């Protein structure tokens, strides 16, 4: 059993998470995700009959309903993959930095990946989908390194407050540069406009096949670092005393997180707040043990993005609201609440 100290203060309340309870919550999360998958295939701008659903799942596209189902299946799969990647990435970033506000969007990593892709397309003629992913990962890595370096300046090192401020400034600067690059270029502005918002509307099996190896590799690296992340939570000195190579663990876990958020951004655009919302919610169910927390956040992240995509398709019929807008509407109040409650303390 593990213990989660809610509040981390003098009046912290220990909450125990026995393995049986975790397994039950894990099964419940899987059931919720399965229900959301069914809803994602069923609901949208057009309501389809059960006969069309079964036919569409089999690959038929003879009717409008069947064609709609055939398009929703890859969209659902991509939403699940991107949500899982962002959820795990945010969890690892919070563990590496010991910052409750760490998130690929808040720390500027997503916008760094976006800037790299836009720059490569506008000035170097990048056209390969796989090239987008490599460039996005490189941009995410540079942005993450820059934010951590700036946040580490000063006597106290990389405090949560300094990391958050450095990330917010980097994100704002990157967003401005993206606009400066895209706006004068009418030939690419149209294609990047929706991508900058963040969404999974252009999903296809081909795109899933291109990004899946990168997401799998990033997830495996993060899972391999799970036990070491538990040691990092105790502090660098104690982790080193337990035999962990702190710098190596931090670099490896950060690499996995960068691969996940960079490749996700290349395919779906910069979707924010998933990596912030999901880890905090999952700690209430799974505790702080990353060996349990990472699988939980993968499933919960997939559920959140799938649910957000369904909501975006239903509330504005027959138009779609991109899932990046939905997660921003949910995540912004949650972010403010964490700032007020945690007062930007370390995890």
TrEMBL record:
One GO process term, biological-process aspect: siderophore-iron import into cell
Q: How does it sit in the membrane?
A: Multi-pass membrane protein
Give the subcellular location.
Cell membrane
Superkingdom, according to UniProt? Bacteria
Keywords tagged on the record: Cell membrane, Membrane, Transmembrane, Transmembrane helix, Transport
Pfam families in UniProt: FecCD
Chain segments annotated as transmembrane: 23-43, 76-93, 105-124, 131-151, 163-183, 211-229, 249-280, 292-315, 321-339
Protein's UniProt keywords contain Transmembrane = yes
Any one GO CC term of this protein is: plasma membrane
Kindly list the GO molecular function terms attached to this UniProt entry.
transmembrane transporter activity
SUPFAM superfamilies reported in the protein's UniProt record:
ABC transporter involved in vitamin B12 uptake, BtuC (SSF81345)
Q: Tell me which InterPro entries the record gives.
A: ABC_BtuC-like (IPR037294), ABC_transptr_permease_BtuC (IPR000522)
Family membership, please give it: Belongs to the binding-protein-dependent transport system permease family. FecCD subfamily.
Q: What is this protein called?
A: Iron ABC transporter permease
């Amino acid at each position: 059993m593990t213990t989660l100290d809610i509040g981390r203060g003098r009046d912290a309340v220990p909450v125990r998470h026995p393995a049986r309870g975790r397994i039950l919550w894990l099964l419940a999360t899987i059931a919720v995700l399965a229900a959301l998958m069914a809803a994602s295939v069923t609901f949208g701008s057009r309501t389809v009959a059960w006969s069309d659903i079964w036919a569409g799942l089999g690959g038929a596209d003879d009717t409008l309903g069947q064609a709609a189902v055939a398009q929703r299946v890859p969209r659902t799969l991509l939403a699940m993959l991107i949500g899982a990647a962002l959820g795990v990435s945010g969890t690892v970033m919070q563990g590496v930095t010991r910052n409750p506000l760490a998130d690929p969007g808040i720390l500027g990593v997503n916008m760094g990946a976006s800037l790299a892709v836009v720059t490569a397309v506008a000035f170097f003629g990048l056209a390969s989908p796989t090239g987008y992913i490599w460039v996005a990962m490189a941009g995410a890595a540079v942005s993450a390194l820059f934010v951590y370096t700036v946040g580490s300046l000063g006597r106290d090192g990389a405090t949560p407050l300094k990391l958050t401020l450095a990330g917010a400034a980097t994100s704002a600067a990157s967003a401005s540069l993206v606009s400066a690059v895209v706006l004068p270029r009418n030939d690419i502005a149209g294609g990047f406009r929706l991508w900058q918002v963040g969404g999974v509307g252009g999903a296809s099996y081909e795109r899933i096949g291109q990004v899946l190896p990168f997401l799998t590799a990033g997830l495996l690296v993060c899972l391999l670092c799970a036990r070491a992340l538990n040691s990092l939570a105790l502090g660098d000195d104690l982790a080193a005393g337990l035999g962990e190579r702190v710098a190596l663990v931090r670099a490896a876990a950060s690499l996995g997180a960068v691969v996940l958020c960079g490749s996700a951004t290349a395919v779906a655009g910069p979707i924010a707040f998933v990596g912030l919302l999901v880890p905090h919610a999952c700690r209430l169910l799974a505790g702080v043990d990353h060996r349990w927390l990472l699988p939980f956040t993968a499933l919960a992240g997939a559920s959140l993005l799938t649910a957000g995509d369904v909501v975006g398709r239903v509330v504005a019929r027959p138009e779609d609201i991109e899932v990046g807008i939905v997660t921003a509407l949910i995540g912004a109040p949650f972010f403010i609440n964490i700032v007020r409650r945690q007062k930007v303390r370390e995890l």
